[in-house]
Specification:
Layout: H1 2-27, E1 57-67, E2 79-85, E3 91-100, E4 108-116, H2 119-128, E5 135-142, E6 148-150, E7 155-157, E8 162-169, E9 175-184
Antiparallel strand pairs: 1-9, 2-8, 3-6, 3-7, 3-9, 4-5, 4-8
């Protein structure tokens, strides 16, 4: 009786492993997809195609930006670095690296501030120096101990499709920085 149970269990185990292997093989093949129409607000008409895989991540960078000494609160003199396009992504990891251009006698933070590229927000920054909805990363204490520095890598939530990047440098010497923005869905 025990022998029959063992044989039955072995046969069932083999059958399950064969079924999972077959299912995995089928899932790797191209499959036909059926599109179901919903009420008129969500009606799908014509041919539905996806030209390429939908990107799940993207990297943007602003390279070799020369940043003269300017504090983060001196908003009229922050160094403009460019725009990061974030449409379609929900979060971003920011990484800032750089190099000093001389012997620093006054250590300080070097950082990047990302401000939403929206007219009312940029007007508040320009007219009143108010930084609204900013994302930021910084190397907290850049010294002359080594010419290279890097920030931590904060993960931030995105609430706007585009961000303008401004850099600051609280040391007494010019630095060159590169900002990396790794965006994911």
């Amino acid at each position: 009786m025990h022998r029959v149970l063992w044989i039955t269990a072995a046969v069932l185990a083999a059958a399950f492993s064969f079924m999972f292997a077959a299912e995995e093989m089928i899932s790797k093949e191209i499959q036909r997809v059926l599109v179901t129409n919903f009420p008129s607000l969500q009606r799908v008409e014509g041919t539905v195609t996806v030209g390429s895989p939908v990107p799940l991540a993207a990297m943007a960078s602003l390279s070799d930006v020369l940043v003269s000494p300017v504090g983060p609160s001196d908003t009229n003199h922050l160094v403009a670095g460019g725009v990061i396009e974030a449409t379609g992504f929900g979060q971003m990891v920011l990484s800032l690296v750089g190099q000093t251009r001389g012997d620093i006698t006054r250590p300080g933070a070097v950082g990047a501030i990302l401000v939403p590229d929206e007219e009312p927000i940029l007007r508040a920054l320009e007219e009143k120096g108010a930084i609204q909805f900013a994302l930021e990363t910084a190397a907290p204490l850049v010294t002359s101990a080594t010419p290279y520095f890097a920030s931590s890598q904060p993960r931030v939530l995105l609430a706007f499709p585009r961000y303008r990047v401004f850099f600051y440098n609280a040391t007494d010497k010019t630095v060159t920085v590169t900002l990396y923005a790794y965006m994911t869905s």
